[in-house]
TrEMBL record:
Requisite cofactors: Mg(2+)
Annotated EC: 6.1.1.20
Keyword annotations: Aminoacyl-tRNA synthetase, ATP-binding, Cytoplasm, Ligase, Magnesium, Metal-binding, Nucleotide-binding, Protein biosynthesis, RNA-binding, tRNA-binding
Domain TRNA-binding: 38-153
InterPro entries, per the entry: aa-tRNA-synth_II/BPL/LPL, B3/B4_tRNA-bd, DNA-bd_dom_put_sf, Fdx_antiC-bd, Fdx_antiC-bd_sf, NA-bd_OB-fold, Phe-tRNA-ligase_IIc_bsu, Phe-tRNA-ligase_IIc_bsu_bact
Protein location: Cytoplasm
This protein's encoding gene: pheT
Protein's name according to its UniProt entry: Phenylalanine--tRNA ligase beta subunit
GO molecular function: ATP binding; catalytic activity, acting on a protein; magnesium ion binding; phenylalanine-tRNA ligase activity; transferase activity; tRNA binding
Length: 801
């Protein structure tokens, strides 16, 4: 909201610079900044065109004689299509400065001398989209005669000084000039004075050509209209137009401009309708039917049963609290007008405006809240402005669709308690004075205060709000400085956060890149990877169809990242995400948030170089990443990988569940070829771990050990085994039978093909034995090695090679 200091002067004395005012307002808790319009402008005056002749060497240029208050008229060549004799216009004199560094100089245009420039509003700093449409492609022409040579800055508000207030949602009372005047006045110990709008009594009649009904009074507690008959719609006065375009509102006509002016003045949106364009004499505020259309100049909006509308018969004339339709728009041919003022439910207005992409100044005010105590007065003020400009013949009494009497909020507090909370010792008189500066009525009973808060401050309801207001106006800078007292809290991360950081650092150290994705997915993506088999959680009001459901896996987001990069020729990708998924057990309303870490790798993990060959990612590379993560969990658990085909979008021959003490904690595998094709990606391997389950595992104690003094003994084992037997089963059995001195087992060879029995594979293992306290003998190692071989033969029917 931009607060014009010239406008503000109508309510309170303004004797300070905008910089000083903005700074002081910011110190009360409302962020503000100074805005000075047209600082660069110089040399702009009123000119009176006394004659216009065609340019001898151009079919569109005109040679104009212009009175600029000097002894003789000056000659200016102008190409605007609307230039004509006897117009009062803006003239930039020789040496004038315009926006964007433009400087006007005397010169010749096609041989004719030109001593300045006749300007349009956009050329002197008013954006084209906010100036009157009739001047959008030409020069600006004053409606009334002006004094030639007079500076135009004040006439057009080109050098208005403003305070730009950044409104927080709870302070929507300052979205109107009158509310801002209370706020700024309290800052400077000034009470604003307002003139109550009044109508000419002889014009106000008891008549009504229209009936009003409100079907949803819980969403529309106040709905008032006035009927204005025999209106001659024209242009609004220049003082009103300049205030509107400086508020980024385009002047349209006297009626619409009056409605917009009142919105800025009071913070109360007003709508205007052409009474004669209505389909019936019944005005109804109700929910739309599915398929109803709101006709707008740029495009039509298809409505549904959640949209609150203003209708006349079957005609939709407005979206309640947001925008009016073009079907009943007030124009220069309008003679009978309806003015509407109401209070609409903020949450409903916000959702509707967001759903139809129609957020504007009116919806912004209803979203944050309007003062239901000034609805009647604002409607009267809009009526008064139309009557002052267009001289209305007859004005109806206020026609009520719904109305709830606005009552002030009563808050009780005590001087001593407020002082205690602030750490001050303000006197009762000082505290009461601060509250009265804000327009509050205060009754004092000893130490107790009873404060009547006007309806414009609907953000206040409890004593703590009084404390805040006293604090703000007294000045935060004036509060005494004290050092905090109490026990100090040791900083640091929680144990779970430390585990998260450790896992993250492991993957970063492995060369993976971290990504952050949206928590919301479409239904297909949730279906694709619902590995935890949870109930879906759908948003009530999703932004788009692609963001309807809370994710139950991080993998769909990573797949999106892979597809995005590979579509841009970035084939070698290694990424991970550490975030929360949402698990909603059957019958539970709210989902549980569960910490997960997931990764995806595609392309080469080793690049082609002069001394290395490119190496593509495979299952075992990604499994190695997972094992490194599990090693850093420091859990006293047995982690196993069990082959599975239960995940439909993972390759059935290259996928495994990850178990900790027989509990599933994650998965690792390759995306199914059909899934990869559907998403236009190359071979990609993924993994996912439940960090919360990992954190809850029992921790093992780690003790430092001296380096072994005695040498180890190694043995190699080659076996022929059926293809269905997994490597993990073999290694587990070797450990079970290798004795206490078996320290490590590694597979070093896998072979399938020629000279191998069908449906079999050849595996080679390296076993290492070590006794940290003595030298191992060959007999001890051979005994353990024999037990290993015997067990493998018995359990897996292997052939020792």
């Amino acid at each position: 909201m931009k607060i014009s200091t010239n406008w503000l002067k109508e309510y309170i004395p303004v004797n300070h610079t905008v910089e000083e005012m903005a700074n002081k307002i910011s110190l009360t808790g409302i962020e503000s900044g100074p805005v000075k319009l047209g600082e660069e402008l110089t040399g702009l005056v009123v000119g009176h065109i006394t004659s216009v002749e065609p340019h001898p060497d151009s079919d569109h240029l005109k040679v104009c004689k212009v009175d600029v208050g000097e002894a003789e008229d000056i000659q200016i060549v102008c190409g605007a299509p609307n230039v004509a004799a006897d117009q009062y216009v803006i003239v930039a004199m020789h040496g004038a400065h315009l926006p964007n560094g433009v400087r006007i100089k005397r010169g010749k245009l096609r041989g004719q001398e030109s001593n300045g420039m006749i300007c349009g509003l956009d050329e002197v700093g008013v954006p084209a989209k906010y100036m009157p449409e009739e001047f959008e492609n030409g020069i600006y022409v004053f409606d009334e005669p002006q004094k030639p040579g007079e500076a135009v800055y004040d006439l057009l508000g080109l050098k208005d000084q403003m305070i730009d207030i950044d409104i927080t949602p709870n302070r929507a009372d300052t979205l109107g000039m009158r509310g801002a005047a209370w706020e700024i006045g309290a800052t400077y110990d000034e009470k604003p004075s307002f003139t109550e709008p009044k109508l000419i009594n002889d014009k106000v009649k008891e008549f009504s050509d229209i009936d009003v009904a409100v079907e949803n009074k819980d969403l529309v507690p106040d709905y008032l209209i006035r009927e204005l008959k025999d209106v001659k719609v024209g242009k609004s006065p220049l003082w009103m137009q300049r205030r509107l375009w400086n508020q980024n509102i385009r002047p349209v006509n006297s009626v619409i401009d009056a409605a917009n002016y009142v919105m800025i003045e009071y913070g109360q949106p007003i709508q205007a309708y052409d009474l004669d364009k209505l389909e019936s004499n019944q005005l109804t505020v109700k929910f739309a039917e599915n398929g109803d259309k709101l006709n707008l100049s740029d495009n039509d909006k298809v409505l549904d049963q959640n949209d609150l509308v203003v209708s006349s018969g079957n005609q939709i004339i407005g979206l309640a609290g947001i925008i009016s339709s073009d079907v009943a728009k007030v124009d220069e041919n309008t003679t009978n007008v309806l003015l509407e003022a109401g209070v609409f439910d903020g949450a409903h207005v916000r959702k509707t405006a967001q759903r139809h992409d129609l957020r504007n100044d009116a919806s912004n005010r209803f979203e944050k809240g309007v003062d239901n105590g000034i609805v009647t007065e604002a409607l009267t003020r809009a009526t008064q402005l139309v009557d002052q400009t267009d001289s209305v013949k007859e004005i109806s009494e206020t026609i009520i669709g719904s109305y709830i009497e606005a009552k002030p909020t009563i808050i009780k507090g005590s001087v001593s308690h407020i002082n205690h909370l602030m750490g001050l010792e303000l006197t009762t008189e000082k505290m009461v004075g601060i509250l009265e500066r804000l327009g509050f009525n205060v009754e004092v009973d000893g130490d107790n205060l009873t404060v009547s808060v006007p309806t414009r401050r609907w953000d206040m309801s409890i004593e703590a709000d009084l404390v805040e207001e006293v604090n703000r106006i007294y000045g935060y800078a004036n509060l005494p400085n004290t050092l905090p007292a109490g026990m100090e809290t040791r900083g640091g991360y929680s144990p779970k956060r430390e585990l998260n950081n450790k896992l993250r650092n492991v993957l970063l150290g492995a060369g993976m890149d971290e990504v952050i994705n949206y928590s919301l997915l479409n239904k297909k993506e949730v279906d694709d990877f619902n590995a935890i088999d949870t109930e879906y959680t759908k948003l009530l009001h999703p932004m788009t169809e692609d963001h309807e459901y809370l994710r139950s896996s991080l993998i769909p987001g990573l797949v999106r990242n892979i597809a995005y990069n590979q579509a841009r020729k970035n084939a070698d990708i290694s990424i991970f995400e550490q975030a929360r998924i949402f698990d909603r057990p059957t019958g539970q309303d709210r989902p549980n948030e569960v910490e997960y870490i997931s990764g995806a790798v595609s392309g080469n993990v080793v690049s082609d170089s002069w001394n290395t060959k490119a190496q593509k990612v495979d299952f075992y590379y990604v499994k190695g990443l997972v094992e490194e993560l599990l090693n850093n969990v420091n859990a006293d658990s047995d982690f196993t990988f069990v082959a599975t085909d239960e995940y439909s979008n993972l390759h059935p021959g290259q996928t495994a569940k990850i178990l900790a003490n027989e509990q599933v904690i994650g998965l690792v595998g390759k995306l199914h070829p059909n899934y990869q094709k559907a998403h236009s990606i190359d071979d990609t391997f993924v993994f996912e771990l439940n960090v919360d389950l990992l954190f809850n595992l029992n921790k093992k104690s780690v003790q430092a050990q001296s380096a072994p003094k005695y040498p180890s003994i190694s043995r190699d084992l080659a076996i022929l085994v059926d293809k269905t037997v997994e490597n993990g089963q073999i290694i587990a059995d070797i450990y079970n039978n290798g004795g206490k001195y078996l320290k490590d087992v590694n597979i070093f060879d896998v072979y399938e093909g020629k000279n191998i029995k069908p449906s079999h594979k050849s595996l080679g293992y390296h076993l290492e034995f070590l006794n940290p306290d003595d030298t191992l003998t060959d007999d001890e190692v051979e005994k353990a090695f024999s037990l290993v071989k015997d067990s493998l033969v018995q359990k897996f029917n292997v052939e020792i090679r």
